[in-house]
Amino acid sequence: MNYFITGGAGFIGSSMADALAKDLTNKITVYDNFSTGFEEFLLKLKSLENVEIIRGDLLDESKLSDAMARSDFVFHFAANADVRFGLKHPRKDLEQNTIATFNVLEAMRKNGIDKIAFSSTGSVYGEATKIPTPEDSPFPIQTSLYASSKLAGEAMISSYCEGYGFTGYIFRFVSILGERYTHGHVFDFYKKLMQDPNELYVLGNGKQRKSYLYVQDCLRAIFAVIQNTKEKVNIYNLGTDEYCEVNDSIKWICEYLNLSPKLIYSGGEHGWIGDNPFIFLDCSKVKSLGWHSNTSIKDAVIKTVKYIEQNKWIYTARKGEANA
Amino acid sequence: MNYFITGGAGFIGSSMADALAKDLTNKITVYDNFSTGFEEFLLKLKSLENVEIIRGDLLDESKLSDAMARSDFVFHFAANADVRFGLKHPRKDLEQNTIATFNVLEAMRKNGIDKIAFSSTGSVYGEATKIPTPEDSPFPIQTSLYASSKLAGEAMISSYCEGYGFTGYIFRFVSILGERYTHGHVFDFYKKLMQDPNELYVLGNGKQRKSYLYVQDCLRAIFAVIQNTKEKVNIYNLGTDEYCEVNDSIKWICEYLNLSPKLIYSGGEHGWIGDNPFIFLDCSKVKSLGWHSNTSIKDAVIKTVKYIEQNKWIYTARKGEANA
């Protein structure tokens, strides 16, 4: 199979590229504008004959369409994932998520490709009224521009399935952790603790409950869905049966680093405007396919910290982006 | 109050402008690119001192923003409403609905305006699993690009409410009928019957069940919601407790016109790809505000036919658009 991966130099995209490239009968095209992706994630892939790496933007329609030629299946992982600062630059979610997804769909149509897997988010449930939240929970009210743009992407993909005979695999992720994770709270906490091991500033009251999934568990779940489902539109929550408080992950990180900083809370149950104080997904649908996660949230947090410890270059690379 | 109406030369927009202009303390700005709106709908308004008419496109951000200055409240009715042919030009829904709505929200933010009413659609429920369909029915899968773009609009508006302190009024309409209705099935059937009174070609099997609302009932419902609700995001279905089959409206139209054409069905339960065979909304939420519809579907259909009969210029004006 010929796979096309948008955001293929990113956290999940490059991990997926690694997984697919192991099968030498696969051909993989990594497409990335390297705005948040890293060349470093592609070091192994670069040398492989069945991998092509293309530097391109999803807003460059003709480059995208040309690059996609001869592909059979599209993994669309590229996105503005800067959830927290969406209100500072509302156009970013529209362009990099909504319009970019439209361009991916149109490029597929032009190239006669009809299978797409899409990374959506558990945030599309807004402040869920049903927890754990199943895929068919009550029609939610959106609270962030990021989730809104992901929902717009889901909706367009579903409509292309209905209207143009596509098959769609839509994954509503909890936060994913693990090797190559380069943003979000574990990353931020580690960074702050390296700067000042005695004090840690925490957004919200630390009691925000979140669910996390380890990246390799996430990839196995994606494969389980693609291999075992046959609907036109296949929508699956991806998470674990566990959740933790922000305070828990702080504790695990500090234990691992052997630190006991003073915790200073900004207060309130929301980390920031549009932050969901509790994302916990009902994952029985994906588990009914035989998949289950192998890694606990605690282990996923520690694996992430270990990776960051061993790859400090990421902090230098990410420096320019602080509060972008 | 100063009201800004996008799509103010259209069916519902111009009717809303008429209603608002009666109160001479209101100032109304009609903004329309006249791509599907009509100068003819504004004949009365043109002569009023409290009405300003601006020819402009929602994709022209600076014109839009300038035009909106000094408004207090935005009615965002402008849209590509060519639901049926969405698959022929998928970019149209993205640009004229999703991006246009984003531009409206940004223009509001620039001008310090924080109240918006938005015409969404009952089609956002896709093939609803719960009928009649309440606002919090199970998270739907989208089936048309039109509904997808309306859902994207809803989501962005809700996020602006959460993030920027806007107040949003989102209306999920059934099809609206009445004076100035210039597209859709009543319009098409009348046109076909004028061309050939002996034969009528019907998309689908005629058993598609639809609910309709008379435009003046619709306006009263919008006012009831705006005057009586206080949430950040107010989402309301607007419809009636009735539905009819396409065959019923054909019968009413033919009775009124005194015709008995032979009916030829294209077959299938869908009129076209993405057509919802049954849209019937649970409107108890809006009715709990004291509103109820005064006009039956049958009367709304007849009022529409009467209007078209008396305004044949619409067919000439619409000629260039056939199957656009």
Keywords for this entry:
324 residues, 11 helices, globular, 7-stranded parallel beta sheet, 3-stranded mixed beta sheet, Rossmann fold, UDP-galactose 4-epimerase, domain 1, alpha/beta, homodimer
The unreliable regions of chain A are none
Predict the CATH topology of the largest domain in chain A. Rossmann fold
Fraction in beta strands of chain A: 15-25%
Structural class by sheet pairing and helices of chain A: alpha/beta
By CATH reckoning, the class of the largest domain in chain A would read Alpha Beta
Task: State the major sheet of chain A.
Answer: 7 strands, parallel
Mean pLDDT value of chain A? 93
Secondary-structure element series of chain A: EHEHEHEHEHEEHEEEHEEHEEHHH
Helical coverage of chain A, percent range: 25-40%
Number of strands of chain A: 14
How would you sum up this structure in a few lines?
The first copy, chain A, has eleven helices and 14 strands.
